[in-house]
Amino acid sequence: APTAAGVSxxxxxxxxxxxxxxxxxxxxxxxxxxxxxxxxxxxxFNFDDILAGQTVLIDVQSRRHRFTPQLVSIDDTISGLExxxx
Length: 86
Prior knowledge:
It is built from no helices and eight strands. With 86 residues, the chain is mainly beta.
């Protein structure tokens, strides 16, 4: 069951070993809330204040590349999550 703790999810969007800037990282939270973050010039993204103890669906929207959505269990802060586009 979700706890009251707010954690963060951060990482990088990559394609063939290179950072992807301007991609939109989308997370669907357990309560149905959808949040978005745009990657910076280095492909980095960050989400703060995510309720721990839930599973989220992560997707990436990019004009040039595709991504297979992933389910990720959030029990604590996640840093360095690498999302690979194809």
